[in-house]
């Protein structure tokens, strides 16, 4: 049962971040760099994402307490956000909900720091991923589960590192059509996970409704 929970956590993380769909973004942001600099950008971005996700996972309940937000209300809002992100992925609008015009302009002006902005935040460690970490951390607050989730996050970041390192080969192999198919499948999976999160919050807020 615990392995199933960790597997669900890991699959959800891959769906909401969609690192395969971000491959063209990574290539475009690092095309001016040599191989060594691109690899360094890859490492820095994934370390940054790991820190963002782990902090969100561990401090989620504290954040909710500070703002006096109930867990079930946050589940509904977070689930809705995840559904919206999934819909944009299905519609082929990857990144539009993660990065506004000001952030795009800033990232262009600061090409030397693309590893942290915009790769680590907000493209990978965006609001959807942070919301998901807070929900998981508050649903399973025990030390054992949190350690397991942290291990899953590290596995996820390691997979992203391998994926980005082989980005040129993967894009040539899949082509634009293949990347679009993967993005839409991830979006559908993400919408299903978002609905499940919302249903859980509604069920607890209104026990007689569902």
TrEMBL record:
InterPro entries: Multi_antbiot-R_MarC (IPR002771). It is found in: Cell membrane. It comes from the Bacteria. The chain crosses the membrane at residues 6-27, 47-67, 73-92, 113-137, 143-164, 185-206. Its main location: membrane. It is a multi-pass membrane protein. Keywords: Cell membrane, Membrane, Transmembrane, Transmembrane helix. Belongs to the UPF0056 (MarC) family. This is UPF0056 membrane protein. It comes from Orbus sasakiae. The gene is ychE.
């Amino acid at each position: 049962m615990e392995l199933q929970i960790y597997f669900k956590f890991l699959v959800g993380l891959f769906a909401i971040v969609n690192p395969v769909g971000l491959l063209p973004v990574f290539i475009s942001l690092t095309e001016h760099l040599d191989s060594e600099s691109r690899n360094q950008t890859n490492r820095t971005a994934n370390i940054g994402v790991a820190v963002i996700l782990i902090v969100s996972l561990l401090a989620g309940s504290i954040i909710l307490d500070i703002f006096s937000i109930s867990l079930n209300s946050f589940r509904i809002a977070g689930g809705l956000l995840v559904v919206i992100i999934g819909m944009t992925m299905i519609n082929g609008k990857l990144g539009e909900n993660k990065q506004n015009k000001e952030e795009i302009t800033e990232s262009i002006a600061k090409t030397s720091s693309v590893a942290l902005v915009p790769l680590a935040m907000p493209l990978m460690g965006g609001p959807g991923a942070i919301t998901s970490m807070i929900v998981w951390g508050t649903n399973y607050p025990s030390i054992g589960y949190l350690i397991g989730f942290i291990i899953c996050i590290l596995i996820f970041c390691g997979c992203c590192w391998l994926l980005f390192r082989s980005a040129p080969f993967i894009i040539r192999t899949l082509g634009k059509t293949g990347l679009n198919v993967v993005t839409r499948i991830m979006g559908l999976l993400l919408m299903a996970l978002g609905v499940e999160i919302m249903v859980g919050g509604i069920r607890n807020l209104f026990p007689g409704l569902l």
